[in-house]
């Protein structure tokens, strides 16, 4: 946006606010929330360059890039790099399994002709979205119990295993359990976004394709998917911004001492460094701030990079 467009936008802003004053009143609470809980706390990012002390506050001594060096090459690098590795693995699972899942569900609902069955199925898929992650994780842990869990009972009944499996405390299962929980919680709501986009596709395209002899799969591949491709592109770019993020609540509820190495992610690492006295409690707050800042900066770089790639390929972009 050049300077003339910015000047024109600023000049016409009072007129637009006067004309659409009700809309601006409606968005004011959200803007205030964004300011106080997202922008104002950025003042405390200075902690990443300090040896922060709760007693000195923002007058704590400055130490330059020492916290970042400690995260990447120093005494905290082992835990940080392990959490980074786990986060990237879980993000890969998310991109491979969970990102296409709501698209597939939305296509199935769009093609389903039985309205009652579709309503019931959508309600079942949407139900976990209205529960807290604590409840959903608790249900998953109950299902996976070695003695009374329904999963172990099913496997034992059909002779697939000889003795119960302690899924929660075995590191080879925790990543898949986490991925299942996140998919179960979010796939139903995400599918509604794609389903709404499919509803806007012209029905005459499907009728014309059917008259030309196109089967259901061809209609999906050549009409439905291209119709929602702009939405898929935008959501994929936004997902890239969260590539270094995981659901910290689900991780903290699932993690056990034996599974730290496989499921400890960057956000749980930041939580532990900032609130738990692992080493020096004063230094930990600064390390947590540095890790959080680094995580967000890398996420922003990923979003900008994915947006540039999409723009080069001629697809839809965020900006």
What order do the helices and strands come in, and which of them pair?
Blueprint: H1 3-19, H2 21-39, H3 66-72, H4 77-98, H5 100-111, H6 115-126, H7 133-143, H8 150-157, H9 171-199, H10 203-211, H11 216-240, H12 248-254, H13 260-263, H14 266-275, H15 281-312
Notes on the structure:
- By secondary structure, the chain is mainly alpha-helical.
- The chain has two domains: 38 residues, no CATH class; 263 residues, MetI-like (MetI-like fold).
- Helices cover 70% and strands 0% of the residues.
- It contains 15 helices and no strands.
- The relative contact order is 0.12.
User: Termini, distance in Å?
Assistant: 11 Å
Q: Which value, in Å, is the CA radius of gyration?
A: 24 Å
Q: CATH topology of the largest domain, what is it called?
A: MetI-like fold
Structural class per helix/strand content?
A: mainly alpha
Q: Roughly how much helix do the residues carry, as a percent range?
A: over 70%
Shape: globular
User: What is the strand tally?
Assistant: 0
Discrete helix count = 15
Overall number of structural domains: 2
Strand content bin: under 5%
Could you provide a short overview of the structure?
With 319 residues, this protein is mainly α. The protein has helices at residues 3-19, 21-39, 66-72, 77-98, 100-111, 115-126, 133-143, 150-157, 171-199, 203-211, 216-240, 248-254, 260-263, 266-275, 281-312. The protein folds into two domains: 1-38, no CATH class; 50-312, Orthogonal Bundle (MetI-like fold).
């Amino acid at each position: 946006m050049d300077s003339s467009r910015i000047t024109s936008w600023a000049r016409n802003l009072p007129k637009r606010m006067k004309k659409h004053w009700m809309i601006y009143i409606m968005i004011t609470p959200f803007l205030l929330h964004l300011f106080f809980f997202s922008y104002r706390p950025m003042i405390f990012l200075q902690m990443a360059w300090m040896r922060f002390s709760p007693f000195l506050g923002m007058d704590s001594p400055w130490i330059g890039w020492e916290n970042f060096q400690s995260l990447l090459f120093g005494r905290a690098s082992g835990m940080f790099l392990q959490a980074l590795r786990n986060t990237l693995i879980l993000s890969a699972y998310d991109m491979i399994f969970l990102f296409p899942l709501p698209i597939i569900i939305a296509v199935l609902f769009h093609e389903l002709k039985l309205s009652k069955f579709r309503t019931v199925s959508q309600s079942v898929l949407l139900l976990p979205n209205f529960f807290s992650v604590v409840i959903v994780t608790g249900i998953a842990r109950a299902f996976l119990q070695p003695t009374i869990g329904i999963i172990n009972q099913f496997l034992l009944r059909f002779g697939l295993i000889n003795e119960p499996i302690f899924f929660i405390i075995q590191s080879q299962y925790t990543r898949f359990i986490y991925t299942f929980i996140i998919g179960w919680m979010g796939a139903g709501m995400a599918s509604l976004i794609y389903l709404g986009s499919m509803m806007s596709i012209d029905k005459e395209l499907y009728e014309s394709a059917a008259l030309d002899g196109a089967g259901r799969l061809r209609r999906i591949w050549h009409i439905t998917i291209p119709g929602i491709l702009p939405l898929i592109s935008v959501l994929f770019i936004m997902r890239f911004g969260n590539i270094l993020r995981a659901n910290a609540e689900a991780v903290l509820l699932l993690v056990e001492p034996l599974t730290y190495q496989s499921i400890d992610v960057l956000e749980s690492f930041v939580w532990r460094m900032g609130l738990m006295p692992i080493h020096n409690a004063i230094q930990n707050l600064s390390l947590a701030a540095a890790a959080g800042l680094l995580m967000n900066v890398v996420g922003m770089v990923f979003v900008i990079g994915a947006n540039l790639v999409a723009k080069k390929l001629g697809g839809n972009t965020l900006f």
